[in-house]
Amino acid sequence: MLQGMSALPSSQRAVLEMVAVDGLTVTEAAAALRISTVAARVRLHRARRAMQGRLAKTAGPRSAPSPSVWEVS
Q: Could you read off the pLDDT of 12-31 as tens digits, one per residue?
């Protein structure tokens, strides 16, 4: 995960680190970075989306669950 984070733009990485690693709220991270809360939310969303894409590429294809999982008893 840390390797994927290093590939993010610094603006996105900073918000992601503060929220996901340091445990700050988006509002707290925004204040620390001196940006608006809206800008912090956008950066966090973009960082999460980028990380999700990177992790999906490394995880490989998923197998579909067996049909019995979907049956209602």
A: 999 999 999 999 999 999 99
Angstrom distance (rounded) from CA 73 to CA 37? 46
Distance CA 51, CA 45 (A): 10
The residue ranges of DSSP E strands in the chain, in sequence order, are none
What CA–CA distance (Å, rounded) separates 3 from 13?
11
**51-56 long-range Cβ contacts below 8 angstroms, 24+ apart:** 51/1, 51/4, 51/5, 51/8, 51/16, 54/4, 54/7, 55/1, 55/4
